[in-house]
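BUG: 3D viewer hangs when loading the predicted structure for this chain

Environment: internal workstation, default settings.
Expected: structure renders.
Actual: progress bar stalls at 90%.

Input used:
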Amino acid sequence: MSARRILLVLACLAAGCETGPKPIAPVEQAGELVVLTINGPATYFEDTEGNASGFEHDLAVLFAKELGVSVRFVLADNPTKVEASIKRGQAHLAAAALVRHLDLPGGATWGPTYHTARHVIVHRTTEPKPKALADLSGRRVGVVEESPADALLSVPIERLPLGTSTVDLLARVAEGGLDFALVESSRFTLLRKHFPALDSAFEVGNPAEYAWLFAAVDKKRLLAAANPFFERIAKDGTLKRLVDRHYGHAARITAIDAGTLIQRTATLLPALKPHFEAAEAATGLDWRFIAAIGYQESHWDPTATSGTGVRGLMMLTEETATRLKVKDRLDARESILGGARYLVVLREALPQRIPEPDRTFLALAAYNLGLGHMEDARILAQRSNLNPDQWQDVKQVMGKLADPLVYNTLRHGFSRGHEALQFVDNVRNYRDILERIAPREVPQSLALPRLAEPPAPKALQGPTKPATAPR
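Structure tokens produced before the viewer hung:
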């Protein structure tokens, strides 16, 4: 070590400098795969049942299982910090909906592409739809900090402050603070339901390729495992099912449906919210989830009645109401409590081996078409060499419940399976909207650890007097 280097180290020690976060150990030595991610609907979030979820989360869990180790997630404050943290070796890989670009200096390397999206121009539907980049000239086009807008757009852009989220960007467009925004299509698919006045106008540039970013730590081994892993899940349909699980339902909600719900959260929900919260206390189900079911069933109309005899806000049959001791189906409080208890009964009736969130999705479908027809659908999935315990597999055969060549071979006969598919998708979307309008507090026990930041260098200084207490 040079004399200059020794002096610098001694000076740092004298000034009380701290060392930055230590790089992690190789996977086998650490006994776990450490994954850096960010909080968001496309990456990692806690669902209404308190379970970790997200497209990137599910992929990383599968990869860790492939390696035969546990997985530990750490959270970066925003995407702009991810690459620097990986170069410092603070995680084995980053799974954060990152768009591949050139390999980085310092040993970080991109893994294989596993998902593609397009960049789209987002606009307000109340104004003329732009058709080409020329239509953006002289208008305010916003992007988030990490956006590759400079390479994609030939018009001036407004790069929002560090840490601004895509949600904030879209909100500025919806409120008129910006005319347009450049957004990845996958992110817009997930967020569009919250902004029914926005839509995509046209695509820009080549497809954006999502990839994991691997740190130098254990890179050779992890990359050697990642390539066949992604090849296998693409070939056997696992990747397609994950994409549909996390993006499919969001693509199937209309702007009118989302806009009507958002309106009614201001007009109808305040009076009903105490009843939904009481149902949460009685059943343990998140009140937003119960409210989403109620909205799907009746648009929160306590007097709703269908031609088939189901009635009330949660649209209970007379038989179900009697079994659940609901005396008056048209009483909002009774109906909500009864509907929540009914979903719990359906969920508990499914085989205990079925994990979440599949268990809840299957129970939701059963709420719509009945437990018997749900079991018929699971039998059909098994006949087709699909997994009867996974919603993404069972939903592939739901439409066959209306096919005479099929339903005549089933115990419970004909059913409108397509309606159950729409029911589950709608409830998921409505729940997501309600979660954004009335976010729940995540228990401290469920919160992800934040990534430690390296300390800022301290200036060299002489002895100082003790700080004076404020007066």
